[in-house]
Design a protein that fits this description.
heterodimer; A: 517 residues; alpha/beta; FAD/NAD(P)-binding domain; eight-stranded mixed beta sheet; seven-stranded mixed beta sheet; 19 strands; B: 410 residues; Elongation Factor Tu (Ef-tu), domain 3; Rossmann fold; Ubiquitin-like (UB roll); 3 domains; six-stranded antiparallel beta sheet; 11 helices; 23% helix; globular
Chain lengths: 517, 410
Amino acid sequence: MKPQEQRHFDAVIIGSGMGGLGAAVELAMNGAGTLLLEQHNLPGGYATSFVRGRFEFEPSLHELGSAGFVESEKRGLKKYFEDEIGADIAFARVPEAYRLILTEKKIDVNVPFGIDAFIQTVDKQVPGGGRHAERYLSLCGEIIAALEYLAEAGSAADKRKLLQDYGNFLRTSPYTMREVADSLKIPREVLDLLYPYFCYIGVPESRQSFMLFGALLYSYIAYGAVIPRMRSHEIASAMIAKFEEHGGLFEANTKVEKILVRKGRAVGVETSRGETILCDTVVSNAGPPLVYGGLISPETEVPPTALRNLNARILGPAGFVVYLGLNSSARELGLSSYSYFISPHMDTDVIYESMKQFEGPLMQASVCLNAAIPDCSPPGTTILSLTTVYTPGVWDSVTPADYFTLKNRLAGKMISQFEEATGVKLRGHIEEIEVATPQTFSRYTGTYNGSIYGWEPEPWDSIIPRALSEEKERYIDRLYFCGGYGFRTHGFSGALFSGRKTARDIISGLPGKEVTV
Amino acid sequence: MKISVKGPARDLAAFFLLGARRRRHFRRATSAPPAAGAMNRLAEKLHPGRLELAVESVRFETPDTRTFRLTRHGGGELPYFRAGQYLSLKPDIAGNRITRPYSITSLPENALDPGFYEITIRKRDGGFFTGHVWETWEAGSRIESSGPLGWFGYEPLRDAKNLVFLAGGCGITPFKPMAADILGSFPDVTILLLYGITDRGSIIFKDDLSAIEEAYPARFRVVYVDSGPAASGCDDRRVFETGFIDRRIIARYVSSPRDATFYVCGPPAMHRLVESEVGSFGLAPGRIRREAAGDTIDVAAEPGYPAEKHGRQYRLTVHSAGGICTIPARAAESVLQSLERAGLAPPSECRSGECGYCRSKLLSGKIYGINNHHGRRMADAGFGYFHPCSSYPLSDLEISVPVDPFVRRT
């Protein structure tokens, strides 16, 4: 194969996580010459899978919210895949919101999807609590409606209409979950049932943006959730297929080592294979800590304001997951639910503090995949994954010699917590086990310090402030970010849609290009 | 329902001042560059993509088996690992960049202090790689390698307390460090090693295994199973059985097979034998752990392989690194071997399907996948991806192969 000439693309995308894929598909569909580079040998970032023995595990995705069960009400990512890009992904429906087990509070309740069913469950659990849940969810519904209006109107959003139709959204958006719950005078026992999804964001109620939490809660409860039948690797594969179909070029095993910047403008990248690639636009799915912490070349091109922006944030949590392939069926084991949220209590500030110590994390969010996809593993077997999170830094002092015994001990602890809370016996049924730590997440995706999210979304750094300041905070010309650090914050949907929006911003700036949706 | 948190006017002001609040946070922050991520550094220490190693010394185990002690080129500690893991060596032999997985035969702690790995290689008659090793590897030789890889090993949360190691020939290699490491770390574990040999001169690690037996007399026992003409009995305190590792011999030494975890490492023929023999005990599936056997030598012996294809020659049209070329392929060789033979330097690690590092796209043509494409992801089957290391052509193929991340673009 002959030596290659200097390559030039309209856009080079660094990283094929959900953000990079969202940007890549959108750019390619709009005719931009796009190169998508990935350091790993698989696309997808966290959207991936791995095989051990007879089992193929889902590494990261618990559920895609905002699914819409009824065809005509299709929403969110499901709508995006099926109607917008025509990607071929088979989804299974997640059967219920969660089984909540609060061991100290002696709570063990199955919480269903559906607003009415949810309210009834709360009322049954906390007599008279239903009306509080109803008020809370109704407010959350207004948040979703306002966000949808803003997304649709874009820069044409009308302040008067906002004030008139979405006043509650405006008046609650500046606040934390706690501030809003206090003002609504929601009893603690009701909040215990409303707050479990906190673990999908990992920021305590005293600091977490209410608006973001409210949108998340409502999108799950009202619209239900789905999971891809063949793990999230199916999502990544389908998106790569779409990207390539539209003329995009995907190159795996190629790490970007430098983003070349000249006079404040990104002009290309340099890869681990020694190639310099020029482009009009660089889109980074790698987060700001990696980009401003070493990728920008020369270093003198890193704007001090970008670093202040970065240092003002708190990095979201790092993952710890125990993947179990069990040699009995879910029925035989007594696993009847999909999501198990297990914690002594639902005091999110105490839980957050517990994430700062090795032995600490009080809460686990665990998934029995067979409850949604009965044939996800061979007949007579079960896939169960137990997830918790650490604040970044907890694992910093771990040495290679400690690493394997430590992760094994912590995995054992999580297995015991699950066994004690549910009464289900896991030990003795473990056919395959794998444990992912913050190190593992960094290893496979390159993510900074094992963070599986992005910046913690406090009210001043939630969706609206991020979206409104995106352009102002583009400190290097033609260098765009997408993914979990982006305006939509983290999670599969957030990352993907931030990538799509980034692509649309880029396309609308290109001469003669119209955005097609 | 009109909701207000701190008074309607204050709430609205707070909303419209979110941007100002944001800028205030930024103004207060420092402009220090972020530190390198500690987890990213740990990942690099534990799982570097490539290692530059050098042969420090060579010693003979048997007339045809040598142990090579490898240190980091330039010195320093090596990645820690779990006993049972392997290195995927990346030699370049006369312009053909190939890979070969070899179990690490030294202990994990030696990787950190004083900083070496050992690998033990038996020379194969006419072996392309082992011939090269015998001719060229000596103290000072430079060797490129992956970091430690693989999932073969003891897992206390999964495995029984009674472990039975079934080794065939040079399949003994992962068991030496596993025995010493497990016995030293887990006081409640006992190990029986059944070691299949062809004659008493072919025993690798004879003295090392005796030393471990002496250190843990109550918890470690070695039984040599000699398929040669020699009689069974004891010799120099070693126990010998004759024949192959079968259910009869296993039952003689393992009183309760269902309470044990079995580990198998040896040539494909031994895997097939042991599979049926151990299978007769009715163990739970996870209680037999298999070390990936590397390249399948004789694909015609695999179940379901269409025998009439075996001697054929095919053409592979290969898309890689932005170019296209056409190369010949033998039906009896894996797609990976054909790619290597053509000098294309494709990526690979385990050579047995399970790691998926060679994952490539099948654009057209038919392939046979060992073990029904064991290791391949479900979605990959639908989207046309396959693992060249464990796939054999059944027709002309057109494939797209990723670049090796450590081969520089030319």
